[in-house]
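Allow me, if you will, to draw on your knowledge of protein folds for a short while. The matter concerns a single protein, recorded as an amino acid sequence and a row of backbone structure tokens. Could you please explain, in whatever detail you think fit, how the structure tokens follow from the sequence? I remain grateful for any guidance, and I place the record below:

…
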Amino acid sequence: MKKLLASAVLTSALIALHPVSAEATPAPAGSTIALTAASPARAEIAIKGVFQATDHWCAPASGAIALRTLGIKVSQTTLARKMRTTKDGTLADNILRVLNAYSKDTGYTYVPAADVYSSKRLGQRIAHSVGTLGKAVPVQVFLDRLPWYRDVDFGRKDVGHVMIVNGYDKRAKTFTVWDPNNYTGDGGEHRITWGQLAKATFSTNPVSGYSRWGLYQPVRK
């Protein structure tokens, strides 16, 4: 039996990203980073997982977790203001702008990647940032495509969401993720296969007018 998400959430939350032109923000230099560098077979970063404080703050909550792995402590309340988050969610361009405003003095930059519909490429990118650099990665997904929401009725398909990848296992082809949405009781830490996450990312969306970035990858400048 499917769980029904409250109507208040349907009207605002979990629609993390408005439609935004894929050409609105050119990919920063370094977005085509080398992905063949050696990385451990498995790695997991200890994070301070937090749940989003409101039903539409998934991007600020995930941003706060990601920035903490760069040594930056900032509240999701502050990030929500700076990302101009509304009841309808957060623009993809604003997520990238704010993450890079905070990371500019750390030696790292966030680059958007639209090629992570490929599970192999997704695994390579995550392994580079998590395993080689030790930094957590914010990912843009369609909420209803995540396995732990299989029994949740969102009232519509392709509901946008942002969460964190903080671990991987190359042999098992799995990721460790933190989902900041706990409005159905399904948030927190999960394991997901590379293929499942690749199919859930925004990069799989063929509809013109949406950002097709699947993740914001922290890389060295």
